[in-house]
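S.,

Sequence below, as promised.
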Amino acid sequence: MRGCRPLTDAEISRVTHAFEGRYARRNRAFFILGVKTGLRCHELLGLKLGDVWRGGRVLDRVYVRRAITKGQRTGFALPLHPLAASTLRSYIKKDCRSRLAGAPLFCSAKSGLDGDLRPLDRSSAWRILKGVFRRAGAEGNTGCHSMRKTFCKKVYHALGNDLVATQVAMHHRAITSTLRYLSFDSGRVEAAILAA
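The prediction came back faster than expected:
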């Protein structure tokens, strides 16, 4: 988390359109779902197809099982943003439709020793995102955690800067964690100081 920064709206747009290659739909769906849900990288990578897709359709909520949450304290469900639903629908219909509900949502190009599908791993996800961030001109302190920080910033402003509600949206145990995510707003503080 340290050092990663949130993305601007312009960067999000450029990144969304910068995915290329055989796994572009998978990687775009991973990125959009991360930015629109604020899930941690390991939570995104731990999702199963059945957590977002049933009966031939994308669900209106993302189901995050307790086994993949931080600390494995409790599972939860999040509403699915329309852009994330649309991106997932395109990805699943073209790349995952024949998979079982228990298959990883974001599969690695490599299968396991027994031929089973494996989830994308964190280092691969990081390399994929760093590459697309570079192509999109979103360099600097960016990485997988930039998706979660972007979500936090957007939710905080959408909630009228309500810190407690943002803590709930982020699934933070302590409000101090939420405060650390919002430390990137120091530019607004500096601007206010200079304007005072």
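The chain has one domain: 9-147.

Coffee later?
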